[in-house]
Specification:
The protein is mainly α. It folds into two domains: 1-150; 152-265, no CATH class. Helices cover 65% and strands 0% of the residues. The longest helix is centred in the last third of the chain and has 32 residues, at 187-218. The structure holds fe (ii) ion (2 copies). The site of one fe (ii) ion has 6 residues, from α4 and α7.
Length: 265
């Protein structure tokens, strides 16, 4: 990491507008793996993450419905949207480091591990889009994940919201999307999404580990705290929950029953 502290280097990743450079900077930090816990606190976090000037970044509610996955354009739109989710997923664990200084090294190592995998996911999808003749940034994107994360400035809440609600929903939808892609003849995209799915189980599991640990430190009941935060999140459309994947990611049976009930309403 040269003369920079890890805090400075991570803020640079957030600010960087060029996507390939952003991914490279993030990768270098993860690869070096060498940091001092007391150097986590960096310069101020930018209000929004850097994106290329010519990208259309819209409020979440202004994005248009995607065409069906039976159409090639619908499949490209889906991959574009997932690629941007993965790019945002590089930035969320960076926030989870910068906003919560003073923890043990193991916490930061786990976040760096997630960042390294999210960099890979973003690259796989950008490459796949290019194979399908589309450039990243050719469609509108939104900063919903970043904004939601920032709305929960408390570590315990953040660990419930980002890995255990948002990323866990990604597990739920993955099966159906992969089935539809295979049905439409795009096995390669489905294969990439399956590899991503397997990594995401690990991310949710790490979120579960830290969520429970922070709850314990504060004398909170992990289950009641998780349920109280989950009540604020209503799925936009009903989707079958991925019991097996969520179990592997550490969800308890009581949590699964609660999430299932919410997804059916
Ligand atoms: Fe990912
Ligand atoms: Fe992830």
């Amino acid at each position: 990491m040269m003369e920079e502290t890890i805090g400075e280097a991570l803020v640079e990743v957030l600010v960087e507008p060029d996507i390939h450079r952003k991914l490279k900077l993030a990768e270098e930090i993860c690869r070096s793996g060498n940091f001092r816990v007391k150097e986590i606190q960096g310069p101020p976090i930018p209000p929004q993450p850097g994106r290329p000037k010519d990208w259309r970044v819209l409020p979440t509610e202004e994005l248009q419905e995607r065409p069906s996955l039976t159409q090639a354009d619908g499949r490209r739109a889906l991959l574009h949207s997932v690629a941007h989710i993965e790019l945002s997923a590089v930035e969320l664990p960076i926030l989870a480091i910068l906003e919560f200084p003073g923890r043990e090294a193991e916490y930061y190592r786990d976040m760096l591990y997630i960042i390294a995998e999210e960099v890979r996911h973003t690259r796989w999808l950008i490459r796949r889009l290019e194979e399908l003749g589309e450039e990243m940034g050719s469609r509108s994107v939104h900063l919903g994940l970043w904004n939601t994360a920032r709305a929960y400035p408390d570590l315990c809440d953040r660990l419930a919201v980002v890995p255990r609600i948002l990323e866990a929903r990604g597990l739920d939808v993955s099966h159906k999307i992969r089935r539809q892609l295979v049905g439409a003849g795009d096995r390669e995209s489905a294969r990439i999404l399956e590899e991503i799915y397997l990594d995401e189980i690990k991310h949710v599991a790490l979120g579960t580990k830290w969520f429970r640990r922070v709850c314990r430190e504060r004398g909170l009941s992990p289950i009641s705290h998780f349920l109280s935060i989950s009540r604020k999140f209503q799925p936009s459309r009903p989707v079958a929950i991925d019991r097996e994947g969520r179990r592997r990611a550490g969800f308890s049976e009581a949590e699964l029953e609660f999430v299932k009930g919410k997804h059916q309403t």
